[in-house]
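Following up on my earlier thread - several people asked me to post the actual chain instead of describing it. Fair enough. Here it is, all 182 residues.
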Amino acid sequence: MADFKSESLAELRRNSHITYIRLAEDFVYLALVIDAFSRKVIGWALDDHLEARLAIAALERAIEARNPAPDSLIHHSDRGVQYACADYIGRLEAKGIAVSMSRPANPYDNAKAESFMKTLKKEEVNGKDYRNLDDARARVGEFIENVYNAKRLHSALGYRPPQEFEAELSRGNQRGCEALSP
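Reply from S.P.:
Thanks for posting it. Predicted structure:
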């Protein structure tokens, strides 16, 4: 394993995943990168294809949002072709990010990303009628940025939303951190 020189618990691990969202007459696909420590979605992309460029767009947003130092981060995903392709792996390696993939037939390795997708489907997607890709992108984006990251409480974060948890960490307030599992 790489020698990680992280100075912050928040810079240790990211999880990625892809899911589908039903439109009136079609499907669109959401790729995301979630901070495994704070549970904050830090990169996401929604489009009408499952090509690797969808996952790469979410990854690039996450890298831009956090700009991790080389050798400070593990990026975990399932073994989907989007994550195993040379372009995706190359972007991770170019940034000095260690690649981790789930064991075959073991979804528990990526449980934090899977848990987000369950929450998204339950609290935003199920029962909604999205008119088209732009409507889905706007409404799912609103949920991610203004509900899940900003307001949704997480028991693992001491019943705080991810943004509040990260803000407290950046101020040096470690309240409840000892009870957290990365």
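The two ends are 17 Å apart (CA to CA). That should answer part of your original question.
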